[in-house]
UniProtKB/TrEMBL annotation:
Protein name per Swiss-Prot or TrEMBL: Uncharacterized protein
Organism: Scheffersomyces stipitis (strain ATCC 58785 / CBS 6054 / NBRC 10063 / NRRL Y-11545)
Length: 145
């Protein structure tokens, strides 16, 4: 994994990582932060084929600490698929989990998430590595937030 690189304005940060040190797939994490929203890009060998809007309401942010005590509650994060396969539930779950990370971050704000879905395989089939891949993406996304 390489070190997080920031531009001179501090608005953009990025780094690359490899899942289980597999050098055949470079995963590039990039964040651009604006005053009222952020853009997150997660590329797999340079490919992003799915885009979500992740709205974070101020009410959800205020109620976040209350929701932590009740693990069954909805944290108010409902990603909206803008571009991509509506039938791919895996990538929708990944987007929802990233939304929860954003909500729990120091500066929660709405986001546009562009991500490559093919790395996760077919959306209607499960694989043994699905959870490990999700955790890898969440751990690295958290580093940017």
């Amino acid at each position: 994994m390489t070190e997080i690189q920031k531009d001179s304005t501090g608005l953009s940060s990025a780094f690359s990582a490899y899942y289980k040190d597999d050098r055949s797939t470079e995963i590039f994490f990039h964040k651009i932060e604006y005053a009222d929203r952020m853009v997150l890009n997660i590329q797999f060998n340079g490919v992003m084929d799915t885009t979500f809007e992740i709205p974070i309401s101020s009410r959800a942010t205020i109620n976040y600490s209350a929701a932590l005590s009740n693990s069954d509650s909805d944290l108010g994060v409902e990603p909206v698929l803008l571009v991509g396969n509506h039938a791919n539930m895996k990538i929708s779950i990944v987007a929802a989990q990233i939304g929860k990370l954003i909500l729990a971050s120091a500066n929660p704000k709405s986001a546009i998430l562009s991500i490559g879905s093919k790395w996760f395989g077919k959306g209607d089939e499960t694989e043994d590595s699905d959870f490990e891949k999700l955790m890898f993406i969440l751990e690295n996304t958290k580093k940017l937030l």
